[in-house]
Amino acid sequence: MGTFFHGLTLSAVVIGVVALGVLLGDIAYKGLPHLDWQFLTSYPSRFPHQAGIKAALAGTGWLMALTAVMVVPVGVGAALWLAEYAPRSWFANLIRLLIANLAGVPGIVYGLLGLALFVRWMGLGRGVLAGAFTVGLLVFPTVVVAAQEALRAVPDSLRQGAYALGATRWQVVSRVVLPAALPGILTGIVLAFSRAIGEAAPLILIGALTFVPFLPRTPMDPFTVLPVQIFNWVSRPQEGFRLIAASGIIVLLVVLLSLNAFAIWLRNRYQRRAEW
Amino acid sequence: MVAVRRPAPSPHPFRRRRGLIRIREQAIALLLLACGVVSILTTVGILVSLISESVGFFRQVPLGRFLTEREWTPLFAEKKFGIAPLAAGTLLTTLIAMGVAGPLGLLAATYLAEYAPDRARRVLKPTLEVLAGIPTVVYGYFALTFVSPLLRAWLFPQMGVFNALSAGLVMGVMILPMVASLSEDAMLAVPRSLREAAYALGARRHQVVLRVVIPAAFSGITAAVFLAIARALGETMIVAIAAGGQPRLTFNPLEAVQTMTAYMVQVSLGDVPHGSLEYQTLFAVGTALFVLTFFFNALGIWVVRRWREEYR
Question: Which is the CATH superfamily of the domain at A36-273?
Answer without folding.
Answer: MetI-like (1.10.3720.10)
